[in-house]
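Self-study notes.
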Amino acid sequence: MLRKLFLLAAVVLSLPASALEVSSLKTNHLECAAGVGAEAPVFSWVGRSSNKNGCQSAYQVRVWCEGSLVWDSGKVLSDNSITVRYEGQPLQPASLYTWQVRIWDNLGKASRWSGKCSFVTALFAPLEWSAQWIEPETTEASPILRKEFSIRKKVQRAVLYATAHGVYEASVNGRKVGDAFMTPGYTSYDNRLQYQTYDITSMLAMGNNAIGVEMARGWYLSNMGFVGRKEFVPNFEGSTFAFLGQIAITYTDGSREIVATDGSWRCSTGAVLHSAIYDGETFDARCIKEGWNKAGFDDSGWNDVKVADYGYANLVSQENGFVRNQEYVEADTLFVTPAGELVIDFGQNLVGSEEITFKGKAGQTIKVTHAEVLDENGNFYTHNLRSADAASQYVCDGTLRTYSTKFTFYGFRYIRLEGVDASEINLSDIRAAVRFTDMAPTGGFSCSDPLVNQLQSNVQWGLRGNFVDVPTDCPQRDERLGWTGDAEVFARTATFNRDAYAFYSKWLKDLEADQLPTGEVTDIVPFVKGLVGAGHVGWADAATIIPWTLYMAYGDTDILRRQYSSMKRWVDCIISQVGDDYLWNTGWHYGDWLFYSENNDCAGNSAVTYTPLCQQCHFANSADIVARTATVLGYSDDAAKYNNVAAKAREAFAKAYMTPSGMLVSHTQTAYTLALVYNMVPAECRPLLAANLDAAVKRYGHITTGFLGTSHISTVLTQNGYNNTAYDLLWRQQYPGWLYPVTMGATTIWERWNSMMPDHTIPDNGMNSFNHYSYGSIGDWLYREAAGLKESMPGYKTIEIRPHPGYGFSWMEARQITPYGEALSRWSIGESGELTLEVEIPFNTSAMVYVPVTRGAEVRIDGMPAEYEIEDGYAGFGVGSGHYVFNVR
């Protein structure tokens, strides 16, 4: 701690009330929440003021249901602006709610009322479902279903609730409902099958109406897992297409009506002849049944559906964002490879689908294959996709159409076109739709070096590509699974770049649903039966690490409360495996997956870390997290119990795995990193371990860590006095290192340090993804340490700015939209060596700003000289909200 801190005096300007405003309203962390359950939702907002040191002293919330006021909080004296819970009349199902807020600042001035934010409620109980599950005839082609109904009175509100075995796209009167893809999403289907909530009021017409549903296999009915199976092997209850839906209509006279799935629905097949997650999609435009989803269509030749009894027990409302086309990338170049292949390069490895506007001849078939890279000869490379076909086939009908897949997605930079000549292709008619889950962008990083800027771009594109409803390991091959280890190491980087609270919250519910009775957490979530195991170090610790990460990033204790049982069960599972020595050293584990290794390693240079050492570190850390969680939630007995567990685990580690000289049984970068980041040794031993870590890095001259060490090594080096070594790791442009793929033209993060060799040859190792976000966890160090922006209390209620400038950079900045608003840390070094640190602290927060100084340097704050004391090379200043510029010369 600094011996003396200097709190900047408040600079309060006399400004009109209009200088205080409220925006960015959210319900349950979403801007437009649909499917809000019966539990009282949580409201949040962002205040802004032109005054420095501004904070909220009170708020007032008003909520309406279908136009009627159902809650007025009155003026509440509180600075809470991120987790205000609804306390009005009981929520009603299938209803539209709107709310707004105004706030008072610390000077007693009130803002204007905010704009209104809306949310639609879900169905609250199984009894509210009147729909029946229906099954179309099972064929290879994707089924389409329809139903006509009449509207004879003026509609006040109409809400569609829908779900499926498979994936579906609903339409009303010929128009697609919403703009989502891949609904109902990927969950632990036997335990949690999501249904979606859509406000379709504006889509209905007086008189006859029609609802249509198109379906495909999706995750539910595709073979999931890297086993190369082509025949379908069911993984969940119900191995055929099924759909459930109902429209709840409320008329202006107060009456209600339900239009629901039942035996009167009709079914046929449409133009999607085949669709599966790994293999792709075949679309035959000649099979389009024009008008099939509009009123008046003749479906007399269609088939009856079969009514099934799957019940409603596993149905849950979707509360996270939808998968949507978030942006588009135009085709960059069209060329012919040395092998004679017609290929288009989009210039960016991405996830989604191509969009091709093309007329063609009736019966002409265009086959589109997808690849991430070209091989060393410049030819199209798909070997790393393994058994995944990853191909679209479009059969033309002679009409100008835009072709794209609806029910699957691909990972690609390049597409290969077959069945069409180059002379028929207009590059401006081809683009790629980038498809991933709705998560507002929240973080930005940039600096003076273009390679590092490209690295940050690769981190963000890796996130985009692997956040398609679940956090996947990779988006292109026969895998695309929710590996817990990958999700855990990247979580903190993800929460900087995107508002990922709702995304992870949904996935963690599936993690708990799939957790074994023993408490073991499955390696992948949702779990694919018979594919992999459970209870493995680093992977299973996602159960504790991710909830705590979300709490620190967003400040909402709900995530801890919901996951607490799961967190405890995992730690209790470990406790059940340890003996009197308190060492967790049993079972098979992935260990420090993908660590640096050498072939024919007679010299012992491969960086193998003793797996029980990794286990012990994670055991202590997970127990510590549970103890901290119990403290937050007020469970004092549990807090004492798990604090004791963590202490015993650390004591056992020091006895079993560390010598008196600070050497560990594994003299690897990962071993020292884990021991330091998880506080496994007494404080007096930390300098010894840090020096050994620094020596281990310098011995190789590069990074050697795998999954368990990579996300922490740079932070550990910086926080233990070896920041220059952390920067050396960043700057390395050879294999292995973060900038090596960048120099090789990578536009996403690779799975391996050497996914491609310097001569562009690609190792044939059976597991080689060019879009794998795990090593992108370096982003966390760039934002929090190099640029120096981090939270010091949950949700960024208090902020720490502590940059590490220099080391070859002339400037660097990190920006983040915190739950309270945008925070900024930007440093630059002038030609004369003067340091400028520019910071932005959001309204309703405060910060400690640590400015790097040397003794005798002059420090100015907003142009005014400032007194300071130095500790560890920094001068500390406490500040309130506002914009500040620190100059050091």
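Second protein, same conventions, sequence then structure:
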Amino acid sequence: MELYKDPTRPVEERVEDLLSRMTLEEKAAQLCGDLPGSVFTDGVLNEELLKEKFPNGHGRFTQYSMLGLSDPEIIAKTSNKIQDYFVNHTRLGIPVALQTENLCGYPAAGGTLFPAQINLGCTWEPELAREMSAIIGQESRSVGISSAMSPVIDVSRDPRWGRTYETYGEDPYLISQFGINYVQGMQEQGVSCIAKHFLGYAVTQGGLNTSAANINDRELYEVYATPFEAAMKEADLGSVMANYGEIDGMPVIDNPRIATELLRNTMGFKGILTSDGAAVFRTWATYKMAETYEECGLIAKKAGTDTEIPVGNAFRQLPRYVQSGDLDESVIDDSVRRVLTVKFKMGLFENPYCDVEKLKEAMANDEKKALSREIAAKSLVLLKNDGVLPLAKKTKKIALIGPHADSLRYPVSGYTYPAYIEMLEASLNAKSTTFAGITDEAERLKKEARDAEKEGKKKPDSGFAGSMFSILPESELPKISNMTKVLRDMNAVSLREALEAAGEDVVYVRGCDIVDPSTEGFAEAVQAAESADVVVMAMGGNCGWVNVTGGEGKDRQTLELPGVQQQLLEAVTAAGKPVILVLYGPGVFSVNYAAETSSAILQAFMPGQYAGEVITETLLGDRNPGGKLTMSVPRGVGQIPIFYNHKNGSGFNDTNNMGIAIFSGGYVDGPSDPLFKFGHGLSYTTFDIHDMDIAVREVPTDGMVEISVKVTNTGDREGTEVVQLYTSFFGAHVTRPVMSLQGFCKVSLKAGEEAVVKFHLSTAQLGYYNENMEFVVEPGTLTVMTGSASDNLSCKETIKLTGKKVNVLGKRSYTCSTEIC
């Protein structure tokens, strides 16, 4: 037996043995991706095409879950056939990685659907991320998938950006905790995570997807790299995906200062850096970095990018650059080592196949769905309540108004099975769809075809991009061309249906569509409001690839409610009845009018198929809301960027401007602070966070800060509170944030019950770049604050960090452990 085939040998030895046996062409093949449609003919896997296209093996097939849109058995059996070719019919038998988008569930038939990640973040329970991703990983591996293009751990500070819903918000510490747990859960199931988007993808110019990010070196590492480094160090993250955009004049995949110096030398990452979909092509076609697409591949490789997806047509040409002396083969070797290491670690050499016989029991079941429902319920954030909630059951006539009130689809996230089905329906009906990477690849093929036609050459194979669903047999299309049926099969009910099922007296009027300018339904909506005791307005946006207000490449100029929804809200409010506004969609809205006039506001985002049920339970008091915001809600786009942990002297929390009017800051046409603050979220009960105690008031710069604080449920019903720990530092020779989240703990208490929360904060979590760009913890004054939100910190004490400065680069702490007594 060859050494690399021996599972008892260390991974490093197996990798080196296999690498030593590989030809240059076999090495390059491991760095390339392709789309599954490239080896399908009329919806059937063409094994002759496999042999023709991949004689030297292959790295990965991406967007692979498309094969399973109609039936998990189809994709599982296909996975086995594909692996059989690579394992048994290529010279070295290296399995191929099968990868897909896994953010909110295995996105195909039989998978468990989960809420959007913005919802998951609002639970402030990272453990739920681990439970969720373990389910996603287990279901994915059951059909052969071994690589997940998730989680998204971008620090998101611009709500105009359409992919905000994929993130865990604006705070590096909170994001780190969810990222660590997500990666651990997924990779424990033998599915390697590709965390994205490295780096600064969510803070682009104008909030536009893939545009330039203006980030300095200090902030790049301290803020945006922290969640990635945390996942690398604490969860052994397998891969990262590069940001499409540019930083400091160079796309990230071409920027050695980020792809090598920061990622490898500073952060010590040993895993794979992959391009995003068609990112190498974009550096040629969009950024115009070189004369040819192939040369752009060379630039990316030399900068530190390991693999090219979805189709590696530039990286396939790397051997000729080695042969010409333009690229050292050792550069390719380094990348191949990383690719092989991930494949070995995920057990792909020992277990490349699916167990089709056990497939049915491996997919979604009631227990898994219960977790999805739990996350949905815990994610709801009560932004405002004047006492109208909870509603007394079966005592009031409810006017239910708005475009989301009777929709099954709008509460469901993008990058999910229903979203793919929606895209399929649109494709079959010749409607426009957008899918970054895939549409870019289609454009590349069109351009190559035009050039080939001019030169009289053979046109290139269109592959998957030529027909997105060519991999599906015609006989399967009827099974998946009805999105409503797909959602019903997932137990989805609308808010209207859930309220009616609860026995409530409901009069429903749509009122308007999400973006349609028609106001024809206004009069009926007002009439319904006038006839009711209370009004529930279900409003906001939607997400996906077809006719949406948010998503990938679907960014916003305004944060107002879309279409004529604001006018409808004002018309209905004028009826004089209490209004409860339920907000849906992939981002936040500047609902200044509602904050003043509505009796209650419930932020729902996209809770998934159980949205109708859990929102109904919350409105009626069967559930007590406990979610907290993971981002600041601006009063308007003029405040962007706005986030709680801004630098001293540079934001709404700046309260020390020497009392001189010219320095006082603030806008002349409105308040400076957010409409709703980071960490905010109300309950139907009340809590008191009090009696904070810090064991030692002088702590060495390499020590531990021990903090305890009491939390009491002072209301009349059971509920949950998130005790949040913040610090600020005085004495650095550089400007530091006004405050930073350092820990949190969610506590469930019965009425009148009290608990003590203990935080164990390592000073190694407090590092920053000093004036000499050393990443250190320095002596000075540390202010410690605890409370229920960034603007509701009831306890505040100061301690001294003493001793010499300590360099913590490579020795950082990322998690503040907690306990409840």
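Instructor comment on the second fold: The first strand starts at residue 33 and ends at 34.
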